[in-house]
Amino acid sequence: MAGLSDLYQEMVVDHSKRPRNFRKIEDPVRTASGYNPLCGDRVQVFVKLENDRVADVSFQGVGCAISTASASIMTEAVRGKTVVEARTLFERFHELVTCGENAARNGASLGKLAVFSNVSHYPARVKCATLVWHTLRSALEGDEGTVSTEQ
Amino acid sequence: MNSMGTAVSQRGSANSKTAWDVQTVRAAFPILKQKVHNKPLVYLDNAATTQKPAAVLDAILGFYKHDCSNVHRGVHQLSERATDAYEGARDTVRHFLNAKDIREVIFVRGATEAINLVAQTFGRRMLGAGDEIVITALEHHSDIVPWQILCEEKGARLSVVPIDDRGELRMDEFEKHLNPRVKLVCAAHVSNALGTVNPVREIVRLSHAEGIPVLLDGAQAAPHFRVDVQELDCDFYAFSGHKIYGPTGIGVLYGKSALLEAMPPYQGGGDMIRSVTFEKTLYNSLPYKFEAGTPHIAGAIGLGAALDYVTGLGQERTESYERGLLAYATEALSAIPDLRMIGTAREKAGVLSFVLNGIHPHDVGTVLDYEGIAVRTGHHCAQPVMDRFGVPATTRASLGLYNSREEIDALVAGIHKVKETFS
């Protein structure tokens, strides 16, 4: 079992208290909302695409430290990526938070996102980390509905 | 190992006027001896479910080991024993609630099913288009959704009595919600999210003055103090076994016999019939009319053992101990900077709901879990209550008769740890 400080690493606490790109993008090309009915967390993701690349990305909403930090670090990680690259990154991130660092291939290439590797030890918190990514994917696919963690 | 020995000796001591010894009480609960994350388990999630004393575990295992059989059918020895034990448990419930008649005690899966039973039988028969059902803003989803489903089906209206900033029911508003179109009033005896004790005697008195029957959801009340349905004069009372130190999957609906007699059956099947032909079926008498199929026999027996345990300990003593513990915990938590109590009603039982400034309840719950402390975080199946206080969720510590002041101290230390983690 990982220690508590492995889950709430300094970077996670920092991003949860001072989330980056916590703003609305006016006239976004794409936006989508996510909702976790079990804990009431809500997030909205805004994406501006240029030539199939994420030119700008931001989010707003209320959530726990894990979900806020995940959203904040996600916006930094996907900026400049193509839509396909962003989707691939989500797949790797999902593997990381569900299976852990050892199981996740290419763990090193996840960069800052690797800070969430210990989420895999807390199954109840996986949805906190992935809600914003599901919401991003929905925005990139142009699905305007609300993503829910409970289908 | 402690098993029957401890439970029996405890029952013996309950009658003597000895002081409450929480360590003796704890010894009756095998699960409490464990460590979680290498820390002693501090179980403060009793409003979600309670742990079971050895007496309950032994009763369930004893049934399956020695008496397992179906009830109300066989002429053989085991079936007679199973029937005696099952009906004995029903009589224990009757005593526990002080119901007038054993036929007024119906075994169900839990308080949720009890409320659904009333909605689908009494409600379906009594409610018409334009009628109303009155509930309170404190209700658990299980006392909201069955009525919404029914109202939608019947073209009826759900009318909600508001609460104030302390989480107390607005009794001045309550009276205004009563009118000739109201067919039933439903109220939590104790709120699961806030711990507010509702003024149920007043609710019953005012409703009956208008000729309206009352259903009380006692899931969070029965574990904490004595419930006397004749004294309350309520028409229906629901509670769950697992929240009062009994097993999951068993609960009770009490109903006044005159009402139950007039209601159609809930589910069709075996045991609820007197005779069946393809042309016509005659229904069984109370309470069996509402107990289709093989019941949760072991569950009922376990519930009986749980109620014996609770009454053996002395409900007045338990109530007085828990009241002191709640006051101690309320004072200790209120002294923590940046902590806001949600629900500060003057009459409360068992529940401490709170938020920490700038820290999400899920993070609070995860850090506390790491300290071995089990609390509930989220909306507690009472989203309208959360909305009323403008929070998406709270952290809820809920007390049981085995919790100690040391455990409250551990909770306070845990909350300071939470604050350090996110400072």
What's the CATH topology label of the largest domain in chain B? Aspartate Aminotransferase, domain 2
Q: Mind telling me the C-alpha Rg of chain B?
A: 22 Å
Alpha-beta classification of chain B: alpha/beta
Mean pLDDT of chain A: 89
Strand order of the largest sheet of chain A: 3-2-1-4
Low-confidence stretches of chain B: 1-16
Tally of structural domains of chain B: 2
Tell me the number of strands of chain B: 17
Which two chains have the most extensive interface, and how many residues on each? Answer: A-B, 22 and 19 residues
Spatial strand sequence of the major β-sheet of chain B: 4-10-9-8-7-5-6
Number of helices of chain A: 5
Shape of chain B: globular
Strand percentage of chain B lies at 15-25%
What share of residues are in beta strands of chain A?
A: 15-25%
Determine the fraction of residues in helical runs of chain A and give it as a percent range. 25-40%
CATH class label of chain A: Alpha Beta
Give a short account of the largest sheet of chain A: 4 strands, mixed
Helical coverage of chain B, percent range: 40-55%
Radius of gyration of chain A: 14 Å
For the biggest sheet of chain B, the summary is: 7 strands, mixed
The CATH superfamily name of the largest domain in chain B is Type I PLP-dependent aspartate aminotransferase-like (Major domain)
Q: Could you characterize what this model shows?
A:
The complex is a heterodimer of chains A (151) and B (423). Chain A has 151 residues and is α+β, with helices and mostly antiparallel strands. Chain A has a single domain (29-142), classed as Sufe protein. Chain: A (Alpha-Beta Complex), CATH 3.90.1010. Helices cover 38% and strands 20% of the residues of chain A. Chain A has helices at 4-7, 10-17, 65-78, 83-99, 126-140; strands spanning 30-36, 41-50, 53-62, 146-148. In chain A, strands 3-2-1-4 form a four-stranded mixed sheet, covered by helices on one side. The longest helix of chain A has 17 residues, at 83-99. Chain A is globular. Chain A starts with a helix and ends with a strand. The model of chain A has no long low-confidence stretch (mean pLDDT 89). The two termini of chain B are 44 Å apart. In chain B, the strands form five sheets. Chain B has a seven-stranded mixed sheet, sandwiched between helices. Chain B has a four-stranded antiparallel sheet with strand order 13-14-17-16, covered by helices on one side. In chain B, β5, α6 and β6 (157-161) form a beta-alpha-beta unit. Chain B has 423 residues and is an alpha/beta fold. Chain B folds into two domains: 4-52 and 314-421, Aspartate Aminotransferase, domain 1, CATH 3.90.1150.10; 59-311, 3-Layer(aba) Sandwich (Aspartate Aminotransferase, domain 2). Chain B has helices at 4-15, 22-27, 54-67, 77-97, 111-126, 145-154, 171-176, 200-209, 229-232, 257-262, 297-313, 315-334, 361-370, 383-388, 405-421; strands spanning 35-36, 39-40, 42-43, 105-108, 132-136, 157-161, 182-188, 214-217, 236-240, 251-255, 273-276, 281-283, 339-341, 351-356, 373-374, 376-378, 394-398. The interface between A and B is medium-sized, with 22 and 19 residues.
